[in-house]
Write a structure and sequence with these properties.
The protein has 117 residues and is mainly beta. 0% of the residues lie in helices and 57% in strands. A hairpin with a 2-residue loop joins β9 and β10.
Length: 117
């Protein structure tokens, strides 16, 4: 059974940084894409960043995080990370790891990120 497990969430002050990591287990294949979504209270889940294979040219960032967040992955290990800098209170949300390809899609349980003074 494929599982995605996130780590690295927590409480940080505005302007601070956090690094989220996600590791996949139970798969003998490499995800075509891996990425991060987030969901704030009362809001819909939104895509934050996605990377295709190991190609940094094949990345997507939400406009709200461009220039502040950086996604990276190790396809061989099926891991993906999200470096979050210059965090704002609006970044407060549960962050979910996502991995998949043609015809399949997996999600982690989520990790809470709270940006507050």
């Amino acid at each position: 059974q494929v599982q995605l497990v996130e780590s690295g969430g927590g409480l940080v002050q505005p302007g601070g940084s956090l690094r989220l990591s996600c590791s996949a287990s139970g798969s003998d294949f490499t995800f075509h894409f891996m990425g991060w979504y987030r969901q704030a209270p009362g809001k819909e889940r939104e895509q934050v960043a996605t990377i295709i294979d190991n190609n940094t040219d094949g990345t997507y960032y939400a406009d709200s995080v461009k220039g502040r967040f950086t996604i990276s992955r190790d396809s061989a290990k099926n891991t993906v990370s999200l470096q979050m800098n210059s965090l704002k209170p609006d970044d407060t949300a549960v962050y979910y790891c996502n991995g998949g390809g043609l015809g399949y899609d997996y999600w982690g349980q989520g990790t809470q990120v709270t940006v507050s003074s």
